[in-house]
Amino acid sequence: MKNRICELLQIEYPVIQGGMAWVATAELAAAVANAGGAGLIAAGNAPAEFVREQIHKARSLTDKTFGVNVMMMSPYVEEVMQVLLEEKVKVITTGAGNPAKYIPALKEVGTIVIPVIPSVALAQKMQKSGADAVVAEGCEAGGHIGELTTMTLVPMVADGVDIPVIAAGGIADNRGVKAAFALGAEGVQVGTRFICSEECTVHPNYKDMVVAAKDRDAIVTGRATGHPVRTLKNKATKLMDKLEKEGNLEEFEKIGMGALRAAVVDGDTEMGSVMAGQSAGLVKDIKSCKEIVKDLFLDIAF
After folding, report:
1. What percent of the chain is modeled with pLDDT above 70?
2. What gap in Å lies between CA 57 and CA 284, rounded to an integer?
3. In whole angstroms, how far apart are CA 1 and each of 69, 114, 210, 213, 295?
4. What does the pLDDT read at residue 97?
5. 238 Cβ contact list (under 8 Å, min separation 6)
6. Distance between CA 17 and CA 168 in Å, rounded?
7. In angstroms, rounded to a whole number, what is the distance separating the alpha carbons of residues 124 and 154?
8. Which residues are registered as beta bridge partners of 116?
9. What pLDDT band is residue 1 in, cutting at 50, 70 and 90?
10. Buried (b) or exposed (e) across 147-157, using 16+ Cβ within 10 A?
11. Which residue in 95, 124, 125 sits closest to 229, CA to CA?
């Protein structure tokens, strides 16, 4: 059972765990790697040395494939990239920007580069820049999102590039994986489902909120800022929606500052930012990463 993603990343199952800021720690990345997929550490807005520590911790927990997700908008992106070069990380994914200028140096040290893209145009640009694959992420995903749905984006990207396409956004079970392959993807990226894994270190309140989520609980705020974010609705999102409609973006931004950490670390699911995708409505329990990966690919030939 091999395909281009499995061969590229040297993994058993063509699944990448989403690079969720504050959520995707070394523990989660290693657990997904040990389950046969590719785990990711989220660099987020963290300083470079924290990312280095997370890489070393993951290496102590697994000898299988894991990598780092880099947010191109991070104030530490230059220093983080330098750490990734020094550590010769096997794979990186990137989001919220164009990583083209870093690709040649990363490829020189043997790093596999997989940008997350919201459009065909950026996918084609990444292919020309030397990317090994792309993650086509639809707006069903949690966190920062684009505008196109997974259903429409994935086949258009698959038609538009020759490198492998990994589908993301709204995939949390076996049916979603089958659909992704039918759309032309050769792998999937899964985020929200892995939040509710035994190995994920987020606060139990966060996991409980995802498990309890219904179909319309994952909403989008921040469109007026140009950086829309999908989270589960709570007191904070209701207030942010009101401020956004009033055009009070200064107060809107204040509510968002530190809100993700508050939810992930402190368990504040009322005023914290509980980032999750629309697939939260499909997540009904907490399982090990090994069980989750097995369920995702049950009876699927790839």
Report:
1. 99
2. 30
3. 26, 22, 32, 34, 16
4. 87
5. none
6. 10
7. 13
8. 135
9. very low
10. ebebeebbbbb
11. 95
